[in-house]
Write a structure and sequence with these properties.
Layout (H helix, E strand, L loop, with lengths): L14 E4 L7 H13 L5 E5 L5 H6 L9 E5 L10 E6 L2 H13 L2 H9 L2 H8 L1 H17 L1 E2 L2 E2 L3 E5 L3 H14 L6 H13 L5 E6 L12 H14 L6 H29 L5 E5 L7 H13 L4
Parallel strand pairs: 1-7, 2-4, 2-7, 8-9
Antiparallel strand pairs: 3-4, 5-6
Helix pairs in contact: 1-11, 3-4, 3-6, 5-6, 6-7, 6-8, 7-8, 9-10
Bound molecules: adenosine-5'-triphosphate (ATP) and magnesium ion.
């Protein structure tokens, strides 16, 4: 049997945290990365922590409970079947109750505290506690083993936006000192260098349409377009040619900005991955395409 060993950038990395500005594609990219990683054959857990049910919407499944549910199967790779992608929506209240149950054996107490509103109170009054519970859950899933083998090949977290991410991850190392046992205690190690910046995902990359020359000068395009329109049997239409030329020039300006930004990102010294802009919107087929692009670039 021929066994090919893939050379990827993230061998040995078990917890991937996807962050970025609001609306730039964190949920989409996290889902594509989960599918790409699951193509290695092992199950992958995709987690969301903001209670928005973005993952359920993306995979077109009912809202996720506090329970790991299978939402997709990764495409086969090199003839080997793809692994399952599980999803989980974590909320601080459920995570706190689970924590009390798992590490302090406080099942009944957890329920009583919920009835009394103490759990809501505790997680609302101390936002840092909510964050530590969420990151603690991610760390627990990444480390979970059954019969000595990891349950998940990787865990991908659809994390809060960039503005809140450092507090979200840092607070864990501060608060973890307070816990005696369990994943919150262990998060201390994660805070002290366990989490490192990974790759840069460049999402919604536009395909170049303006390599024809003429650049961002509309006049440069108009004459050529007029000729092309005529050749295509659309008659002589200087106005249409001028309008199209203006759009083309606009596109060229956007492309220029995109390339300049791209050079800045490359200078950051982290691996960069391009994810194409998918014009028809994001469905499962689109996620598969994005996952394939990530694998081809060595991200999984
Ligand atoms: N590569 C892409 N091609 C086309 N559309 C995309 C792509 N990536 C994301 N989108 C679309 O952009 C919008 C925002 O994406 P997404 O919800 O993943 O962003 P987000 O960063 O998670 O947003 P939020 O900050 O609100 O959680 C969605 O409508 C999504 O379908
Ligand atoms: Mg999102």
């Amino acid at each position: 049997m021929l066994v090919s060993v893939r050379d990827t950038d993230w061998d040995g990395v078990r917890l991937h945290v996807v962050t970025g500005k609001g609306g730039t594609g964190k949920t989409t990219v996290a889902a594509a990365l989960a599918l790409a990683l699951a193509s290695n054959g092992k199950p992958v857990l995709l987690m969301e922590v903001e209670g928005r049910q973005g993952i359920a919407q993306l995979f077109d499944v009912p809202p996720l409970p506090y329970e790991e549910r299978r939402v997709a199967v990764a495409p086969a790779d090199d003839g080997r079947p793809g692994g399952d992608v599980f999803a989980l929506a974590v909320d601080p209240q459920s995570a706190l109750i689970e924590y009390l149950e798992m590490f302090y054996n406080l099942r009944q107490a957890g329920r009583a505290l919920t009835r009394l509103g103490v759990v809501d109170f505790a997680t609302t009054i101390a936002p840092g506690l909510a964050d530590v519970l969420l990151t603690g859950k991610a760390a627990e899933a990444a480390r979970r083993k059954v019969n000595g083998s990891p349950v998940y090949g990787a865990v991908v977290m659809d994390a809060p936006p960039t503005g809140r991410i450092s507090r979200f991850l840092n607070v864990s190392s501060e608060i973890s000192g307070l816990a005696k046992v369990g994943p919150i205690r262990e998060l201390k190690d994660v805070g002290n260098g366990g989490i490192q910046p990974g790759g840069i995902m460049v999402n919604m990359v536009r395909r170049s349409l303006t390599q024809l020359g003429g650049g961002d000068n509309a006049d440069g395009h108009a004459a050529a377009l007029e000729v092309a329109l005529k050749a295509a049997g659309l008659g002589e239409d200087a106005k249409l040619a001028a309008d199209l030329a203006a759009e083309l020039a606009d596109e060229a300006r956007t492309e220029k900005t995109q390339s300049a930004q791209r050079r800045t990102l490359e200078a950051a010294g982290q691996p960069c991955y391009d994810l194409p802009l998918i014009a028809d919107g994001i469905d499962l087929a689109a996620l598969y395409r994005l996952a394939k692009a990530l694998r081809e670039q060595g991200a999984a």
